[in-house]
Amino acid sequence: MPDSVYRVTEVIGVSGESWAAAARTAVETAAKSVRDLRVAEVVRQDVIIENGQVSGFRVRLAISFKYESGD
Fold this sequence. Notes:
Radius of gyration: 15 Å
CATH class: Alpha Beta
Distance between the termini: 15 Å
CATH architecture: 2-Layer Sandwich
Strand content: over 45%
Number of domains: 1
Strand order of the largest sheet: 1-3-2
């Protein structure tokens, strides 16, 4: 296996449905502008509260992607 270098960046996904949907939104959106995504780690989950009710779900993900070597 050749040597590799990865970058990790944090993104936040939001959904009115669930934490899973929020994570999916974050990954799918990041994949539109960053190639070769590898792993997403859930760093934090929280909810948005409006008028005493949960109105949304947020997930902070640490997403890693591989740097291209240019070879």
